[in-house]
Amino acid sequence: MTAAKNSSFEGGCTCRAVRYRITSAPLFVHCCHCRWCQRETGASFALNALIEADRVILLKGEVEIVNTPSNSGKGQKIARCPACRIALWSNYAGVGDAIRFVRVGTLEQPDRFPPDIHIFTSSKQPWVVLPADVSAVAEYYDRKAYWPGKSLERRAALLAAVSKQHG
Length: 167
Hints:
Oligomer: single chain
Order of helices and strands: EEEHEEEEEEEEHH
Distance between the termini: 32 Å
């Protein structure tokens, strides 16, 4: 994972009604080329920084949660600015509300979080050229094969805490 040196990063929507801060580097950064992400973003891919929900602090405004279908059939909850409708992050059914998929483009310094992996490249636009030095997979991937050890440990701790809360 590309480590960012600062311990917190701020972002927000286009109209600046919603502002947030992430308080650490993300667990991992996906560049997803699936057709669902292409349709949802109106672009060739979505770039998401996966991070524990409690490390995403709302600084200003409120988000509106929009339930949206997903390729898995389990859906996703997209947090949007109620004024300008920009998507700030998503929560997917697989990990629930515990991990947010922050839209990297909404950060003030989006260049600090380049992708750690390109996923669903089987449906990427043919004119998108992937860098040779970044992992790429045709569909999804085995987390243990690609995530750094520290990110796997953070995820395990988070899931243990969530299980304890619900158990």
